């Protein structure tokens, strides 16, 4: 029989949207949550603490090593360790559809910086603590867009394809340390940022639904079960995998 153990979990980009759904669900499940975000981290953690749950918020820019290292130090000072890193922070909802030859080099580099350098820096910052613990979990948030070859957002699609490659290669490096590295690949999700920026209008509602086997819109809560499972003891022999959580729009 599996015995539940409360874990310390970092959720980057956890102040809103999909990240907040992860943080709140995991806290409700009895885990201690660290919300790391550029804006709103402490406010989001307060919302969770007001429910009688355990969470702290730390303002963090995931592309700055000094920020991330400081966040990890504060997390360890508060909770004693780090068991799980959820690399959720990324650029998407502020981007617009455009042909690849109209994407500026500056925008391309910024997307790559946040979506690929961020997970790299965060993984580097937590791995020594996980090794001391005898293991850990790293969960990266990718996307189904590189699987589909989605057009008109080439920088975003390439960055999430890189996250899948990052997941596979890092899993090979950390397997001997009993650290699993997996990814989830959401479909188009009606997150807070998507709705605020009107991105749901990219695709008509009927098309969003009929493209899926489960024919309804995807919401952030649809993703929390997959993350909770990959963070659990029951997923200890699963690594290097990308789990598509999109209502059956793609099959891997």
Automatic annotation (TrEMBL):
> Pfam families, per this entry?
adh_short_C2
Q: Where is the Ketoreductase domain?
A: 7-187
Q: Name one GO biological process term.
A: fatty acid biosynthetic process
What family classification does the UniProt entry report for this protein? Answer: Belongs to the short-chain dehydrogenases/reductases (SDR) family.
Q: Which PROSITE patterns does the entry mention? A: ADH_SHORT
Q: Report the source organism.
A: Noviherbaspirillum pedocola
Can you say what this protein is called?
Glucose 1-dehydrogenase
What does the record give as EC number? 1.1.1.47
Q: Which SUPFAM superfamilies match?
A: NAD(P)-binding Rossmann-fold domains (SSF51735)
The main enzyme category here is: oxidoreductase
**Per its UniProt record, what CDD domains does this chain match?**
SDR_c (cd05233)
Q: Which SMART domains match?
A: PKS_KR (SM00822)
Instruction: Please indicate which superkingdom the organism of origin belongs to.
Output: Bacteria
Q: Which Gene3D superfamilies match?
A: NAD(P)-binding Rossmann-like Domain
The UniProt keyword set, sorted, is: Oxidoreductase
Show the GO MF annotations: glucose 1-dehydrogenase [NAD(P)+] activity; quinone binding
């Amino acid at each position: 029989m599996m015995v539940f153990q409360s874990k310390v979990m970092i959720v980057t980009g956890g102040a809103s949207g999909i990240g907040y759904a992860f943080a709140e669900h995991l806290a409700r499940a009895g885990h201690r949550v660290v919300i790391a975000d550029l804006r709103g981290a402490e406010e989001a953690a307060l919302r969770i603490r007001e429910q009688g749950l355990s969470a702290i918020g730390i303002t963090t820019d995931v592309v700055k090593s000094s920020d991330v290292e400081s966040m990890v130090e504060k997390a360890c000072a508060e909770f004693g360790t780090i068991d799980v890193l959820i690399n959720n922070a990324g650029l998407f909802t502020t981007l617009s559809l455009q042909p690849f030859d109209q994407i500026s080099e500056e925008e391309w580099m910024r997307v790559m910086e946040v979506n690929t350098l961020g997970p790299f820096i965060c993984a580097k910052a937590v791995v020594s603590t996980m090794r001391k613990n005898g293991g850990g979990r790293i969960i990266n948030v990718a996307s189904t867009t590189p699987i589909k070859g989605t057009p008109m957002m080439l920088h975003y699609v390439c960055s999430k394809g890189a996250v899948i490659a990052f997941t596979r290669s890092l899993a090979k490096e950390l397997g001997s340390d009993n650290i699993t590295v997996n990814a989830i690949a959401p479909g188009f999700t009606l997150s807070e940022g998507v709705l605020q920026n009107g991105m749901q209008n990219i695709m008509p509602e009927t098309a969003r639904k009929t493209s899926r086997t489960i024919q309804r819109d995807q919401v952030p809560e649809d993703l929390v079960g997959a993350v909770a499972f990959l963070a659990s003891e029951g997923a200890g022999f699963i690594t290097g995998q990308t789990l598509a959580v999109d209502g059956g729009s793609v099959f891997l």
